[in-house]
Inverse folding.
């Protein structure tokens, strides 16, 4: 069982849901400055995704926990991150599969899906751990999340 304390983000919504998950993936950071990270290697990533909203769906869910896992796990588990379109541009540092960019991409992917739901849940935080000693927290700009 995964048990961990995460940083929290303040928000005005009635419900907050968190989903923990793992995925195994390989990557390299295509930058001469990246040192050993420029070499192909792998991690078991750990992600915690925070979803908020005011309304539940017809199942009484803010969003089904399993959907959040499916969006991330089905796409990235046992894959080469650099092989995904989101991370394939080796000339744009915003597209390198760093922890920062992967966390932001997960949030954006999930939000794209949530935008199609009638109860309009929002992804307000992705905590992404790459190694036992390194993690990133991504939060979309407040205007983007709360501004409708
Ligand atoms: N800001 C970032 N820095 C680094 C990233 C990153 O994504 N964003 N990535 C790496 C490497 O991919 C590496 O796999 C992880 O680095 P690091 O935490 O240094 O790994 P260690 O397990 O060796 O850490 P120790 O605490 O020294 O054991 C590097 N930097
Ligand atoms: Zn790495």
């Amino acid at each position: 069982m995964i048990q961990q304390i995460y940083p929290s983000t303040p928000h005005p919504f009635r419900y907050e849901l968190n989903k923990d998950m793992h995925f195994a993936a390989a990557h390299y950071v295509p930058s001469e400055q990246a040192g050993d990270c420029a070499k192909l290697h792998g991690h078991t990533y750990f992600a915690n995704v925070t979803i908020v909203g005011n309304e539940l769906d017809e199942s009484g869910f803010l969003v089904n926990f399993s959907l959040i896992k499916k969006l991330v796990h089905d796409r990235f588990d046992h894959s080469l991150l650099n092989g995904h379109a989101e991370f394939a541009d080796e000339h744009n540092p915003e597209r390198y599969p760093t922890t920062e960019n992967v966390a932001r991409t997960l949030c954006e992917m999930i939000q794209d899906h949530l935008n199609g739901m009638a109860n309009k849940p929002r992804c307000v935080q992705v905590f992404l751990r790459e190694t036992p000693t390194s993690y990133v927290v991504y939060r979309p700009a407040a205007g983007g999340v709360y501004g409708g």
Summary: Residues 99-114 form the longest helix (16 residues). The two ends are 35 Å apart (CA to CA). The longest strand covers residues 15-27. Residues 37, 98-100, 130-131, 133-134 surround LPXRUNBV (ligand 1) (CB under 6 Å).
